[in-house]
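A.,

Following up on our hallway conversation. Structure tokens first:
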């Protein structure tokens, strides 16, 4: 194994990257993160799967701190997909406890407001109740929701296709309850109409999505909202993701010319 550079050298390098970002003024407002690689990190370092998930949760807390420092407004964390719920009952139970602790910790931060995005009905009842309570508590602190500097979306029980299906169903149901005809309801199925019924309604679409662990796919994450999003894929497993990796992603984003399909 090659020797690692001293920590002071990383700190100097980080300051240099951060200083280069400031003049551009092109930091993303909304960053999405696919926190991938917890289990592979655990296997590589002789740890258990649960240890890997715990390490990943601790990294999320660090990551939110970095976002607070840089003034990023919205962070969306992909922590539990619909497919994850199909793993063994033992792993799902352990992962649910870790996610519950994580969301409690995020909600306790004065600078954060938690919002749950996903089909909460898919979650075990105890986890659903715990996450809901934490999200409500995060908006009940000093100054309420308006005082939050970082809005943290926790994607649990999340599937991008299901989100779109749910949004269309809600839109049509709303129109039917208003007494509109089928033709009128169909006319309301527009990009704007669907967007207003997504889990992230009222928020800007993600400017940047980061995925760790070397995989280069979205796995159903924010597939409607990411039509014009920039993507950054890095090889490092999520528990080993460093501030240096984050700053490199932001530098890469700042250097791109965004045309929004034009």
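Then the amino acids I'd put at each of the 262 positions:
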């Amino acid at each position: 194994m090659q020797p690692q550079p001293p920590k002071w050298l990383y700190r100097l390098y980080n300051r240099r990257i951060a200083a280069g970002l400031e003049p551009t003024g092109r930091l993303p407002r909304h960053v999405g993160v696919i926190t991938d690689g917890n289990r592979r990190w655990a296997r590589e370092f002789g740890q258990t799967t649960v240890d890997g998930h715990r390490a990943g949760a601790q990294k999320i807390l660090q990551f939110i701190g970095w976002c607070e420092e840089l003034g990023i407004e919205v962070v969306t964390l992909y922590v539990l997909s619909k497919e994850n719920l199909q793993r063994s009952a033992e792993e799902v139970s352990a992962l649910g406890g870790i996610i519950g602790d994580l969301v409690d910790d995020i909600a306790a931060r004065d600078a954060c407001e938690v919002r749950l995005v996903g089909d909460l009905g898919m979650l075990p009842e105890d986890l659903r109740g715990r996450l809901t309570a934490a999200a409500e508590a995060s908006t009940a602190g000093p100054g309420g929701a308006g005082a939050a500097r970082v809005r943290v979306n926790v994607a649990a029980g999340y599937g991008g296709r299901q989100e779109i299906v749910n949004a269309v169903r809600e839109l049509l149901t709303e129109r039917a309850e208003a007494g509109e005809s089928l033709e009128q309801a169909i006319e309301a199925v527009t990009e704007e109409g669907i967007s207003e019924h997504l889990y992230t309604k009222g928020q800007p679409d993600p400017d940047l999505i980061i995925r760790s662990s070397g995989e280069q796919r979205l796995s159903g994450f924010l597939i409607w909202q990411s039509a014009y999003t920039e993507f950054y894929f890095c090889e490092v497993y999520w528990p080993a993701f460093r501030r240096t990796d984050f700053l490199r992603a932001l530098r890469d984003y700042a250097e791109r010319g965004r045309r929004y399909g034009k």
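The first helix runs from residue 7 to 21. Curious whether your intuition agrees with the design.

B.
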